[in-house]
Amino acid sequence: MVSLQRTTATDGNILLYVINTVIAARLNDVLMQHAFAVTTVHNGNGLAEAAARGSYDAIVTGTTQISEVRSHLLQPIINYEIFVHDPVPSTAVPSSGRSRFDADEFIKRIRFHAIERHRRRGDQD
């Protein structure tokens, strides 16, 4: 099943293909907070349906789904896992031991691909 959620002002149209629904919900929230229209799918059937239905500026997925995404779509693929970092050990500040998601860099990467895709579309007109 495809879940289509749109914001009123969009900086780009993103396909989010993440099997883990908790991670997908968090990534969806980050993307929507930054004015991206997001189509979220959680399995291969949803991916195939979304690929047939829409045009996307970028696809966000995890490492294990990259080859599957490539078999359906040609748009840039952004692996959200590269934005997850282990805590930096410090003697001055105790660490919670939890990984940190670099949302700022994640959004910068997505914006870059969305802007580049729109620029290329404009060059073709």
Overview of this protein structure:
The chain is α/β, with parallel strands linked by helices and 125 residues long. It has one domain: Response regulator (Rossmann fold, 3-Layer(aba) Sandwich). It contains four helices and seven strands. It has helices at 21-33, 44-53, 66-70, 103-124, and strands spanning 3-5, 12-17, 36-41, 58-61, 77-79, 84-85, 100-101. The chain has a five-stranded mixed beta sheet with strand order 1-3-2-4-5. A two-stranded antiparallel ribbon has the order 6-7. The protein is globular and about 45 Å long.
CATH homologous superfamily annotation: Response regulator
Spatial ordering of strands, largest sheet: 1-3-2-4-5
Q: Please tell me how large the radius of gyration is.
A: 16 Å
Kindly, what is the distance between the CA atoms of the first and last residues, rounded to a whole number of angstroms?
34 Å
Q: Mind sketching the topology for me?
A:
Elements lengths: L2 E3 L6 E6 L3 H13 L2 E6 L2 H10 L4 E4 L4 H5 L6 E3 L4 E2 L14 E2 L1 H22 L1
Parallel strand pairs: 2-3, 2-4, 4-5
Antiparallel strand pairs: 1-3, 6-7
